[in-house]
Amino acid sequence: MRSKKTDSGTAAGQGELAILLEIRRRTARASQSGLRLGIGDDCALLAPRPGEELAVTTDLSIAGRHFRLDWHSPEAIGHRALARGLSDLAAMGARPVAAFLSLGLPRPLTLAHGRKPAWVGRFLDGLLALAAAHKTPLAGGDLAESPLAVADIVLVGAVPCGRALLRSGARPGHLLYVTGALGGAAAGLACLAELAGKQKPAQTQSPLPQPPAIPKKLAALLVPHLYPQPRNAQGLWLQRRGLASAALDLSDGLSTDLTHLCQESGVAAEVDSAALPQHSGATLAQALHGGEDYELLFTAPAAARLPRSIAGVPVTRIGRILRPRPGQPQITLLTAQGPQPLQPHGWEHFS
Amino acid sequence: MRSKKTDSGTAAGQGELAILLEIRRRTARASQSGLRLGIGDDCALLAPRPGEELAVTTDLSIAGRHFRLDWHSPEAIGHRALARGLSDLAAMGARPVAAFLSLGLPRPLTLAHGRKPAWVGRFLDGLLALAAAHKTPLAGGDLAESPLAVADIVLVGAVPCGRALLRSGARPGHLLYVTGALGGAAAGLACLAELAGKQKPAQTQSPLPQPPAIPKKLAALLVPHLYPQPRNAQGLWLQRRGLASAALDLSDGLSTDLTHLCQESGVAAEVDSAALPQHSGATLAQALHGGEDYELLFTAPAAARLPRSIAGVPVTRIGRILRPRPGQPQITLLTAQGPQPLQPHGWEHFS
Predict the structure, then answer these.
(1) Is residue A195 in some structural domain?
(2) From start to end of A38-149, where are the E strands?
(3) At what angle do helices B232-241 and B74-92 cross, to 10 degrees?
């Protein structure tokens, strides 16, 4: 996290340096996670423990694409940006060491409006609250003015050498599991879109777009979309026990992410629709194809004894891994009407 | 580097997956630098050598802010994005281990136009050529459609524990050095701005903005701006010899970056204007305040014997470190007209 100028007008101003100073004040310079040197130099320094390798992931969040200023509160946008990165570490079974944030913001989002705090401060509230819950220090990044709000989050984790959970380890006969419930984020997003559609135009045309007020009775339905909980404790548990043969996180939806797993492992799979842990309020289609649940999808040999829950989150067996069958669909969905091919219905940019 | 969908239409299409496949084809999955697992899983895996710690830096490049599509060729934009990150590793004396790229692009930049390759392919040409020259594998990242072109580059390097060059180690009496010449990037930028200003409007209004043609006689003047060379060999040399007491890279300009060094070390400094290695074609103001030269600024005890050049790049003594003097300017410029305060004239976003 570097400033572009160092002269006067720091604390009082709303410049880059003021934001930097706020971030620096709110983040530790070193921590037990392995962060040796945080914000303030050209690089941060991380010290893995002997015998560990490092897992690195980046996730880009762009206004209008991954979030909307007129739909999402700044706290939720900050939370969601970090959750995406933490979830990638969870999928590898890596413990978080440090997070980095590259942030490009339009000027109005950096200014306080009267007594209201600046958008960027509330964004950091959301991001740093989740970081604290996962004992993950914000160790650096970059900051720039931008016509469009963009946030690239980088997570660095550590895992004992050779023990990371990969996508490529699933073998025919292994069983297929998910943590938690599926489709909750997609159901919450649909609800949020409806609320936003009912807003008066005046609200959406203010200089700083305002997300819709959320009626109390709908709050619980929106939580899986606005504040998804990455499954780091569960990923770490699986890695330490050595029970999972392959894993990834459900960011693009079960049908798409299971296809990834099958492709990297060179296998096929079948999913039992009756076994799917549908989130309350979610449709079967949302459970099959909805993205951003950030649950873990993993496989384990049939002989492995999996508990019913890991660190308080249910674990459900939803299918099994098959030998690849040339000319046959990679994934089969078992339904009351018989087996059906399950095509990936996630989305691809630029297509 | 993760895709959002995995179904058909891959190689032929211009979708995210096609770009991903091109990147994957053009990058190593593992390397001697310490990259164990590259593109294709939730995270990349890096294995530092025993006794090493890791240096991490992120640099955000935004269209209209850090580059212009109607000024810079895609190759130069790719080169410059990576150079910023490599230069941060150079400043710490860390060897590059891997680079990560989060890329948001408008759809037209991902499409081939007739027989002309897509903008994104040429961007990767520039980025990967510099990566190859520094034996730095592109190990992952993220990809998204975006109304605005943004590229966040993440560099991970390795350095023996406790040996990184920091900004905070300068002490009164130490001498101040720079590598290479100063002001070349600012002079090149001024020249490029002039060329771009002479373009016909038709050229700048095409769907894909075209940078100006560069006359042969001006090419050399533009190189320091378009293709800066980060000083990784020099930073590594200084770290291994243990000669430098503090270092950083000149990204914001000497006056601003020396202020950073003085603040982090709690010292003052004086610079001898007659000693400054001005780049040919650069003014004194450009040498003092121009950014993006990506030379190294470092200090060493007076007893240290520095060579005249390191790995083929000249090293010049430009001043010395002083005790902080309350009420006095932090940096003094010695000129033929006597000493003058040197204020940081870099720039701050959002101010």
Answers:
(1) no
(2) 44-46, 52-62, 95-105, 138-145
(3) 10
In which element (H, E) is residue B191 found? helix B184-197
- pLDDT averaged per 10 residues, chain B (length 351): 37 57 68 78 90 95 94 96 98 96 94 86 95 94 93 96 96 98 96 88 65 92 96 98 97 95 96 97 95 97 96 98 92 96 71 39
pLDDT for A194 beyond 70: yes
Q: What is the ipTM of this complex?
A: 0.90
Q: Which residues 174-213 of B are in CB contact (within 8 Å) with A? A: none
Is there a single domain that holds both residue B181 and residue B284? yes
pLDDT-based confidence at A38, cuts 50/70/90? confident
The domain tally of chain A equals: 2
Q: Residue B203 burial by CB count (10 A; 0-12/13-18/19+): exposed, middle or buried?
A: middle
Residues B21 and B77 in one domain: yes
Across the interface, which of A91, A143, A346 has its CB nearest the CB of B4?
A346
pLDDT value of position B11:
31
Strand segments, DSSP code E, in B113-245 are: 138-145, 150-160, 175-179
Describe chain B by its helix, strand, coil percentages, rounded to 5: 30, 25, 40
In this structure, the answer to whether residues B122 and B178 fall within a common structural domain is no
Query: A134-163 as b/e, with b when 16 or more CB fall inside 10 Å?
Result: bebbbbbbbbbbbbbbbbbbbbbbbbbeee
For residues A24-45, give the mean pLDDT. Answer: 77
Counts of helices then strands in chain A (DSSP H, E): 9, 14
- DSSP letter at B190 equals H
SS (H, E, C) A166-177: CHHHCCCCCEEE
A256 CB within 8 Å of a chain B CB: yes
B164 near A CB under 8 A: yes
Max Cα distance, chain B (Å): 72
- Predicted local confidence at residue A115, as pLDDT: 81
Q: Is B261 on the interface with A (CB under 8 A)?
A: no
Q: What is the Cα gyration radius of chain B? A: 21
Question: Is residue B80 one of the residues assigned to a domain?
Answer: yes
Q: Which of B97, B118, B101 is nearest to B109 (CA)?
A: B118
Q: Looking at residues A84-103, what average pLDDT do you find?
A: 96
Residue range(s) defining the domain that contains residue A258: 167-187+227-341
- CB of A199 within 8 A of CB of A212? yes
Domain boundary residue, one of B160, B179, B195: B160
Handedness of CA A88, A90, A94, A97 (dihedral sign): positive
Do B124 and B245 lie in one domain? The reply is no
Examine the domain organization and report whether B182 and B315 are in the same domain: yes
Tokens representing residue A224 in the block: 């899986």
A106 chain-B contacts, CB cut-off 8 A: none
B149-200 pLDDT, tens digit each: 999 999 999 999 999 999 999 999 999 999 999 999 999 999 999 999 887 7
